[in-house]
Design brief:
- Helix content is 49%, strand content 10%.
- With 458 residues, the protein is α+β, with helices and mostly antiparallel strands.
- It has a single domain (11-444), classed as Orthogonal Bundle (Cytochrome p450), CATH 1.10.630.
- The strands form 4 sheets. Strands 1-2-8-5-3 form a 5-stranded mixed sheet, sandwiched between helices.
- The termini are far apart.
Amino acid sequence: MTLPNGPKAPALVQLIQWIGDPLRYMDKCAKQYGDIFTAQVNNGKPWVMIHHPQAVQEMLNSSAFHAPGSLNSLLKPLMGEQSMILLSGERHKRSRQLLMPPFHGERMRNYGQLICAIAQDVASKWSVDRAFVARSAMQEVTMRVILQAVFGLDDGPRLEEIKPLLTSVLDMTGSPLRSSMLFFGWMQQDWGSWSPWGRMKQRKQKLDDLIYAEIEERRLQPDANRTDILSLMMAARDENGQPMTNEELRDELMTLLLAGHETTATALAWAFYWIHHLPSVRQKLLQELDSLGENPDPMEIFRLPYLSAVCQETLRIYPVAMLTFSREVLRPVELMGHQLEPGTVVVGSIYLTHRREDLYPEPLQFKPERFLERQFSPYEYLPFGGGSRRCIGLALAQLEMKLVLATILRDFDLVLAEKKPVQAKRRGVTLGPAGGVRMALQGRRMRQQMPEPVASGV
């Protein structure tokens, strides 16, 4: 088998380039090799990387590909062996079926008022003209949403213990250098608090103890009236009538914490940057938000077309997840003119797909209108991945993103604290704004009274 062309540099050099500047690496490869290329960035098997919608559709839908959890072992130290992301086949299917109900339909309405209240509370503590980091502020919002909506934790000693521990575990992979621990096995040495890996394990163990204590407490004192996601997960039964084990619950909670808290905070920081970097976008958005009047229903906010387009464009231009989860070829298959043999690992570049000029004219420009002018297929626009590995929390993430933006923008007048453009950089396995986007509060905002809603095409 001959793999598609790709960079000729040694695998270790490519891996270092991939860790240090993944966007530059992908941009160069796409420019030189086109829609499909081989990347030696996996510290093992080479990856065949694709970004043509037709190839992405084939990879996600064809029975010639499957998505074994073993290909995601990079995340095991953070999420645990029972995480849905690490499971395969029937076990993965069972896990998704048990977790799906809390994230859909009417359940989402229960979280709308909570999200708005948390966003309002966090923003109300900002001081006029004192700069703050948008990403850190949004982490506070999304952390509280996750801990209250997912864990069902109200203010109390356990909540106060979990928050700093979770933040410190996440920050252990918060830069390209610290992210290296996930990619190089030899860096995962536990020498106690002397070593970064040892410190992370100690903090993670304390976090585990608190999560298991919460699970045990719920088992001893069940409450059928609770609507938080942990309670719904504990009440769920598979087709054999079996509940999730404590270890499964713990690993899925860690997955939701890491995947839901970190990614949504990053997306919100990017959104605040683009909205305030481009006055015309901010003006159109404020017009639409002001058209709702006082105390709008959260679901009314959720359905606003221009707000939706701003969120979509934010997730297009710098998708938090750069890649789809990896797939493995099960039987000989042709992809973009290349014959791939069983065992070949294929991964879709969400970032490169979102930057294609044939799909998104002027792809480096932030233009929400493109999402009002046309519909994109799930293979052209896929910020939450696709197929059997599509993000299970996407409905909550979209709701949270829109409600937080609307709540803060309607009531608070913000400006960017720095004029220079913000660049993207690696944070663990995700992509975030370098510096976190520094902003400042100018004061409370007086809303404009508008007799008619703004037209959706504006």
